[in-house]
Design a protein that fits this description.
Elements: E1 2-8, H1 12-24, E2 29-32, E3 49-50, H2 61-80, E4 84-85, E5 89-93, H3 96-112, E6 117-119, H4 122-128, E7 136-140, E8 144-146, H5 148-160, E9 165-168, E10 173-179, E11 182-187, E12 192-199, H6 205-211, E13 218-230, E14 241-244, E15 256-259, E16 265-268, E17 272-273, H7 287-294, H8 297-304, H9 306-320, H10 322-330, E18 341-354, E19 364-368, E20 371-376, H11 381-397
Parallel strand pairs: 1-2, 1-12, 2-9, 5-14, 12-20
Antiparallel strand pairs: 3-8, 4-8, 5-7, 6-7, 10-11, 11-12, 13-16, 13-17, 13-18, 14-15, 15-16, 19-20
Helix pairs in contact: 1-5, 1-11, 2-11, 9-10
The structure holds flavin-adenine dinucleotide.
Amino acid sequence: MSHDVAVVGGGCVGLSVTKHLTERTDLDVAILEKEHHLAQHQSGRNSGVLHPGFNYPPESKKADFATEGTRRMKEYCAEHGVPCEELGVLVVAKTDREEAHLETLAEQAEANGVEYEILRSQEAIREHEPHAVGQAALYAPEAASVDSQQYVYALAREIQQRENASLYTGHAVSEIEHTAAGYRIATSNSDVEASYLVNAAGLHADTLAHQLGVGEQYQVVPFRGEYYEITPDRADLCQTMIYPTPDPQLPFLGVHYTRRTDGKVIVGPNAVLAFGREAYDNTDVNPADLAETLTYEGFQKLLASKTMLSVAWAELNKSYRKRRFTEASQRLVPEVRSEDLEKSYAGIRAQLVSDDGELVKDPLFVERENAVHILNAVSPGLTSSLPFGEHIAETLAAKV
Ligand SMILES: Cc1cc2nc3c(=O)[nH]c(=O)nc-3n(C[C@H](O)[C@H](O)[C@H](O)COP(=O)(O)OP(=O)(O)OC[C@H]3O[C@@H](n4cnc5c(N)ncnc54)[C@H](O)[C@@H]3O)c2cc1C
């Protein structure tokens, strides 16, 4: 098979890149997706929250993509029949330090043009969420809950209607070789020749990039996020979405409550080292992946930090001891009991770590003469997927 562009990875990012590329150029684009069904990894295993942009510093890529992404996703979902509900989010502060950080979030919201209100009492919090407890909260009405799997399928349906796009599922890319004409891509199915390459392989993007000598100073470290579901009879404990005040030192937002578009309320995710890039259960181990992580100097340096070590220990406990997970959940909604929580699904974040032990917090892509490698489509990657994919499509189209 031969195509102008090969996009490796049919998650929300790869599909969005393809949507925008095929909309604005005549390039013949092939998406190579290893799974037989879409949305099997990050794009279908997340909280499904559209983050309107108050969590990110003004003028950062994250802020721009999230703010614009929230608006565009809502329009897209309305147009394509994807369930999406603008429920609003409450970010709850339990301590003076957290309350002070809410001011930073408010400033960011102001600068990024995101609607918000600061609630300064327990009574004001209760008006939004009768069971949430805190001393203050930031309320952002534009946050929304979306069915991320249906979004992925809507993108795929739209693309499949285009004459210049082909979606190949069940095509796991094993090897990419640079040739005079572009790339030769070996897959578990037929091989593909392409003049241009977009690497949007999520949890495996670094492995493929390394084959071409790209991004060798980084490695994906897989962090699993587990969810519990509140039993239906207790689901009224959360009406909308309740988040803790994030710790600015950490890349993850902390265990939160999300009312999904199907009415279920999920609690999570924690953030624990996964013993494999696709080790979704806490008993799953992929020895090769695990060895790769444990021997990676960036990971070793990350764990040398006392803060990280204590966070890692606390998160590990939340994974293996339900009592610890319940305690974290009770911080926001004290009425929730262990018996109200039933184990649900898990997702794995493709967290990029650098050789010097830094967690890469911003979206990161690396350009080559005829390729773009997306190494870090970090959260809120779902929210950002439309403008981010468009940006990558423009970047690639400029090379043609
Ligand atoms: C637990 C969790 C909660 C999150 N919550 C939110 C949230 O509430 N809001 C938000 O905005 N973002 C959230 N995110 C982030 C968001 O889900 C991701 O940023 C986004 O889905 C990344 O999309 P992607 O297309 O890059 O990755 P993926 O969805 O992982 O897609 C990559 C695709 O590449 C395929 N692939 C990999 N290797 C190969 C190969 N060798 N050959 C062919 N195909 C390959 C995979 O099968 C996969 O389909 C969350 C993420 C996680 C894990």
